[in-house]
Amino acid sequence: MVSTTDLAQKEVINVVDGRRLGFISDIEINLEEGRVEALILPGQGKFLGIFGRESEKVIPWSHVKKIGHDVILVQYEGVDIIEKDNDSER
After folding, report:
1. 20 band by pLDDT with thresholds 50, 70 and 90
2. pLDDT at 48
3. Does 86 have pLDDT greater than 80?
């Protein structure tokens, strides 16, 4: 079993192109069913972090392909991935 703390310390890698997507900033959990719904990754920083960040990426749990010791492999093709503005509420 993997704890949410363990998940947050793993880097997310896209299996489609091998690109590093970053580390998990938050996790959506369905409390009624007791399961993880999605992983939330922060947007990339804009120009030295001075001008804020881009939209967050919400990756549905169904896109997670493998959880390893150091990384989480996801199939991220930009389809069905929700980009949230940092100003919007969850």
Report:
1. very high
2. 55
3. no
User: DSSP assignment of 49-89, as one string?
Assistant: GTT-B--EEEEEGGGEEEE-SSEEEE---SSS-EEE-TTS-
- Annotated domain spans of the chain: 4-84
CA atoms within 13 A on the CB side of 67: 14
Give the whole-angstrom CA distance, residue 60 versus residue 68. Answer: 18
Residues 6+ apart with CB under 8 A from 1: none
Question: At the top level of CATH, which class does the domain 4-84 belong to?
Answer: mainly beta
The model's pTM: 0.72
CA–CA dist 83, 81 (Å, integer): 6
